């Protein structure tokens, strides 16, 4: 018998360690806490706010949507859903989209779709999907299993069968897949985000794509963090000259309104016939209106070009700091505005000092990696403000 209800715990489960501020308002690259303190936000809500906080274009579209329709279920046609699907397929190598509500749900759907293909086309119902060490694919049972990190899986067994792990950026992994007759798909991030901001090597990724093609198995690219412009192209796979067969997105697609999606080429996507998969809220009028407005703003405001220019500026200035403080900064890496800085000091101490002493917010990606994720539409003066604060923290550490 469980104890009677305790009156002494916080009503929200403590699954997150939280920084000791309450954020009340956001606009552009700034947030304000409940004391009225203003912070420069270079976390973008964990790579979500490509256009910054409460972007005018999306705000206007959502206010309109609030007055017309919030929800009607996928038993009816939804205009904004169809429009967003057309935009995503027009700008990617995939033919069809399924909408859901999060990154994990998108990856879960991608895994189901790959299994469907394995069952019905490859006739390998017992096969497995290969994922890579240090990957991150989500927190549901299957995506947690796909996530090859002990610290994510520990204490949640039994894991879901049907996954196998290989080393990232390692030639022997390509050979292992080639020789693996039960491999029914390969799933990877073009830049491992949570795993430490580690970009895939270009030749390795191309060899991996070639092996998938040769074997007739789907290449599944998880662009939940890299997708929707974060790396300077709409999708990170574009940098690599490869084409995924299944592609997942979420974080930045709705400018902060919860939405996810998986896309696929038609030979695969066609296997999802009526009744095979579902999601009550997936593709709902409100979230897809946010998606449409976000992608329209990308075009109108030339967001991809801005991202690339900002990424070049920020990366150059971080590399200057690295030259100046080689004992403190070990490397600067990433792609576009998904930037990792490897530090000698614990990353969390730098994050805390930036927040407390300079009102600047950034994230970590592991014990000694800072993760810097500005809105894609940041500008030179915000970048300079960040660089000045970061330099001061390093001087204080020296
Ligand atoms: C954030 C993330 C996920 C999980 O997305 P949720 O919306 O938190 O479920 C999956 N894959 C990658 C690469 C991510 O960065």
UniProtKB/TrEMBL annotation:
Pathway: Amino-acid biosynthesis; L-arginine biosynthesis; N(2)-acetyl-L-ornithine from L-glutamate: step 4/4. Keywords: Amino-acid biosynthesis, Aminotransferase, Arginine biosynthesis, Cytoplasm, Pyridoxal phosphate, Transferase. It catalyses: N(2)-acetyl-L-ornithine + 2-oxoglutarate = N-acetyl-L-glutamate 5-semialdehyde + L-glutamate. Its EC number is 2.6.1.11. HAMAP family: ArgD_aminotrans_3. It is found in: Cytoplasm. May also have succinyldiaminopimelate aminotransferase activity, thus carrying out the corresponding step in lysine biosynthesis. Belongs to the class-III pyridoxal-phosphate-dependent aminotransferase family. ArgD subfamily. Its cofactor is pyridoxal 5'-phosphate. This is Acetylornithine aminotransferase. Binds 1 pyridoxal phosphate per subunit. The modification N6-(pyridoxal phosphate)lysine is found at residue 251. Homodimer. The keyword Transport does not apply. It is an enzyme of class 2 (transferase). GO terms for molecular function: transaminase activity.
């Amino acid at each position: 018998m469980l104890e009677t209800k305790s009156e002494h715990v916080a009503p929200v489960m403590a699954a997150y360690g939280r920084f000791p501020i309450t954020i009340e308002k956001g606009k552009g690259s700034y947030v304000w806490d409940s004391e009225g303190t203003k912070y420069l936000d270079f976390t973008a809500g964990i790579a979500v706010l490509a256009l910054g906080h409460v972007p005018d274009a999306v705000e206007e579209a959502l206010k309109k949507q609030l007055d017309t329709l919030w929800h009607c279920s996928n038993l009816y046609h939804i205009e904004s859903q169809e429009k967003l699907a057309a935009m995503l397929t027009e700008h990617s190598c995939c033919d069809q989209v399924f909408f859901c509500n999060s990154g994990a749900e998108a990856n879960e759907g991608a895994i189901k779709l790959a299994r469907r293909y394995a069952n019905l086309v490859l006739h390998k119902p017992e096969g497995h999907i290969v994922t890579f060490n240090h990957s991150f694919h989500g927190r549901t049972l299957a995506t947690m299993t796909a996530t090859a990190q002990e610290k994510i899986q520990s204490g949640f067994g039994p894991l879901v069968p049907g996954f196998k792990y290989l080393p990232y950026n390692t030639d022997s992994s390509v050979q292992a897949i080639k020789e693996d007759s039960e491999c029914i798909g390969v799933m990877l991030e073009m830049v491992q985000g949570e795993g430490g901001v580690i970009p895939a090597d270009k030749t390795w990724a191309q060899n991996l794509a070639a092996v998938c093609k040769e074997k007739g198995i789907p290449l599944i690219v998880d662009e939940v963090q890299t997708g929707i412009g974060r790396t300077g192209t709409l999708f990170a796979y574009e940098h690599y000259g490869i084409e995924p067969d299944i592609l997942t997105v979420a974080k930045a697609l709705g400018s902060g309104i919860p939405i996810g999606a998986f896309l696929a080429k038609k030979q695969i996507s066609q296997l999802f016939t009526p009744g095979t998969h579902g999601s009550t809220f997936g593709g709902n009028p409100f979230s897809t209106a946010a998606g449409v407005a976000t992608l329209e703003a990308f075009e109108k405001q030339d967001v991809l070009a801005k991202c690339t220019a900002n990424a070049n500026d920020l990366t150059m200035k971080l590399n200057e700091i690295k030259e100046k403080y080689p004992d403190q900064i070990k490397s600067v890496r990433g792609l576009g505005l998904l930037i990792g800085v490897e530090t000698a000091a614990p990353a969390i101490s730098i994050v805390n000092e930036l927040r407390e002493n300079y009102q600047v917010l950034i994230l970590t990606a592991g014990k000694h990696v800072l993760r810097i994720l500005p809105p894609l539409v940041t500008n030179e003066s915000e970048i300079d403000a960040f660089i000045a604060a970061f330099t001061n923290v390093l001087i204080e550490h020296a």
